[in-house]
Amino acid sequence: MTEAYLSTFGFPPIPSVMLPVFARSRKAMRELWQQHLFRSLYGSDPVLTGVPLRVQREGKESSFESSSGERKTMEYKPIVAESMFKPEEGKGMSTEEFFRLASEPGKKMAQEASRRMLEEVAKVTKEAGQVIDAKGQAFHPRLMIEALRKMDISFDDHGNPSLPQMIVGSELHSSIRDKIPGWEQDEAIKSGMREVIAQKREEFREREANRRLVD
């Protein structure tokens, strides 16, 4: 460590200390920071964790095809998350605190990305006429079955459906949590699900057959 003395605008000399850079340590800390930030971004939100990730390295927009066959374009918008550090944190911090601070921006970006995605899904769903109006009714699986009838559902090579995620708020989840075991044993509900899945399987086969003819 070297010590230099500076005199500015006639003030008495002020001692100044040059701290070592520790380039390798800084690089390792920066890499760990980025790892925990992106791990939090892609793994902290239950909505985003169920969405396949597609990396796009160039361009400012993307597109997708709606259930009606219409191509929709989405323009990318930046998501910003800020982190603030207190001066005393420069003295050092525990590993747990370092990882916590690295994860916070990722969680903020994940929450914002999830909010924007749900807004886009609501918009597209409304345009496609796939919105179910419960008309003030309490949630019941028959509403979910009715919603499935309006959706396109894909199936794997073994005929198993790729059912969509159901996302509900914390209040609704609390109100239906204890009812779910009973619904799972309800024969009328199970029969309704089997019926709609059989219907969607046939629709899927027709779509695939038409797609092969076009290809």
Q: Tags for this entry?
A:
mainly alpha, 2 domains, two-stranded antiparallel ribbon, two-stranded antiparallel sheet, 4 strands, 50% helix, 8% strand, elongated
Explain what the structure shows:
- With 215 residues, the protein is mainly alpha-helical.
- The protein folds into 2 domains: 3-127, no CATH class; 141-214, no CATH class.
- It has 7 helices and 4 strands; from the N terminus they run ββααββααααα.
- β3 and β4 form a beta hairpin.
- α1 runs parallel beside α3 and α4 (141-149) runs parallel beside α7 (187-214).
- The protein is elongated and about 75 Å long.
Shape: elongated
Q: What Rg is obtained from the alpha carbons, in whole angstroms?
A: 27 Å
Task: Compute the number of structural domains.
Answer: 2
Q: Assign a percent range to the helix content.
A: 40-55%
Give the strand order, joined by hyphens, for the main sheet: 1-2
* Pattern of helices and strands: EEHHEEHHHHH
Our measurement of the CA-to-CA distance between the termini, rounded to an integer number of angstroms, reads 71 Å
- State the low-pLDDT regions, or none: 1-11
Strand content: 5-15%
Instruction: Tell me about the largest β-sheet.
Output: 2 strands, antiparallel
The count of strands amounts to: 4
Kindly name the structural category: mainly alpha
